[in-house]
Structure formats: structure tokens, C-alpha cells
Amino acid sequence: MRLAASLERGSEYDRRRYARAPVQIGAGLRSGGDDRPSCAINVVDLSTGGAGIEAGVHLECGSRVWLKLPGLQSWAARVMWCDGNRAGIAFDSPLHPAVVERYARG
């Protein structure tokens, strides 16, 4: 027996829970304790629940990181996926929607 099925956009089966806004933000990313230096990254999309990033360093899925956006405190997150120099991170606690809007406007 064969069953043909497809997922609809925006359905409950969509992997992302939050709509992401495309952005280009220079930011910092660090792992470990406060004494560890951050590395420069580029945030390519942003939502209240997470971000897509480009980094020149190796990131491991499941690792804990802190994202430092300009003008904000460091925000705790977990690396959810990696593909070459790109990765997706999920925030431990969501950003306020006004913060995302501010960065999305440029």
C-alpha cells in the first residue's frame, strides 16, 4: 500500500514555531563561562524564539551558546542544527517581539 502525502506551509507540522525575519546583524557568540571570548558572527534571520547564524567557527548541535546582539545583554541559546558555516539556534527564553522588529527594520 502507498500513501501520498505532503505538508502544508504553516501547518502544525512545520518545524519552526516562530516566523523569522531576514536580517544582517554583526554579533558575538560565545560558549562556556563568562571569561571565554566571543567570536564574531553574522545573524541572517531572527525571531522571538531563535536565529539563523553564519559563523567562522565549528559549532556542535546541542551545545549551549550565548548570543550578543548590539545593544542587548547576552542571550542564552542552544545550537539546534549545523550545516557548514551556518547554524540555527533556539533561545532559552524568547526575545520580546519589539526587539525582533527593531532589528528587522535595520
Written overview of the protein:
It is built from one helix and six strands; from the N terminus they run E-E-E-E-E-E-H. The protein has 106 residues and is mainly beta. The protein has a single domain, classed as Beta Barrel (Thrombin, subunit H), CATH 2.40.10.220. It has a six-stranded antiparallel β-barrel with strand order 1-2-3-6-5-4. Strand 1 (21-30) and strand 2 form a beta hairpin. It is globular.
Main sheet: strand order: 1-2-3-6-5-4
**Biggest pleated sheet:** 6 strands, antiparallel, barrel
Helical fraction: under 10%
The CATH top-level class label? Mainly Beta
Secondary structure class reads mainly beta
Question: Averaged pLDDT, please?
Answer: 86
The succession of helices and strands, N to C, reads EEEEEEH
Give the low-pLDDT segments. 1-14
The CATH superfamily is: predicted glycosyltransferase like domains
Short characterization:
With 106 residues, the chain is mainly beta.
Descriptive tags:
mainly beta; Thrombin, subunit H; 106 residues; globular
Summarize the topology:
Elements: E1 21-30, E2 39-46, E3 50-55, E4 64-68, E5 75-83, E6 86-91, H1 97-105
Antiparallel strand pairs: 1-2, 1-4, 2-3, 3-6, 4-5, 5-6
